[in-house]
Design brief:
The protein is of the alpha+beta class. Helices cover 44% and strands 19% of the residues. It has one domain. It is globular and about 65 Å long. It starts with a helix and ends with a helix. About 2% of the residues have low confidence.
């Protein structure tokens, strides 16, 4: 997928979500806002779907590093950091094929299956969601800015808990849209202002 098309589609998806993120009405009968749990579900799907596209087309991958689990043999697998992902192939921690960016979308306990053994069951254990870049020639894509957009989306997901204020959700999604605008346009708004508006004042 062309990166411009990716940005335009993602922007459209986020704007659809933003339109429903309104403060609750005083009367339940007049409340047309979207409940937080629906907003969270919609954003989780967007986050997952577009991270898959980012990996398949641009070499930007979200990889879950499993740091511990109840399995006694855990530390003997891949240096104690077995990984999992949604791309259908293995991306090992510190693989030379990928650049470790230092970006972490999440760090904490999660209820999931650790890949250190095929016999493992779902357990609550410590994981880290790392962002890695495939080692490839420069393709002109600002991958750091793309990660920043995903970070805003994930922040909005984290802010969409039950009874949480919706202002934080709106702010983070608007931040993502502003970032997308700057990637879609030929130049950022700040660059445009500096070039055309500031020059007029001179």
């Amino acid at each position: 997928m062309n990166i411009l098309k990716f940005y335009v589609q993602l922007r459209s998806e986020l704007i659809k979500v933003i339109t429903g993120v309104k403060d609750s009405g005083l009367s339940l009968s007049w409340d047309d806002s979207t409940p937080n749990y629906i907003t969270k579900s919609n954003l989780e799907k967007i986050y997952s779907d577009y991270f898959k596209i980012a990996g398949n087309y641009y070499g930007v991958y979200l990889v879950t590093r499993h740091c511990s689990c109840p399995n006694k043999m855990h530390d003997e697998v891949d240096g104690g950091y077995p990984t999992s992902n949604e791309y259908g192939f293995e991306i090992k921690y510190h693989s030379k094929q990928y650049k470790n960016t230092g970006f972490q979308m999440y760090q904490g306990n999660r209820l999931c299956i650790c890949p250190c053994s095929l016999e493992n069951k779902v357990t609550k254990h410590w994981v880290i969601d790392d962002v890695v870049f495939e080692q490839r020639k420069d393709d002109g894509i600002n991958k750091e800015e793309l990660v920043g957009i995903f970070s805003d989306i994930y922040g909005a997901i984290e802010s969409a808990g039950d009874k949480c204020p919706r202002s934080a959700i709106r702010e983070l999604l608007l931040s993502a849209v502003i970032r997308l605008n700057d990637q879609i346009l030929p130049s950022t708004v700040d660059d445009f202002i500096n070039k055309y508006i500031s020059s007029d004042k001179a």
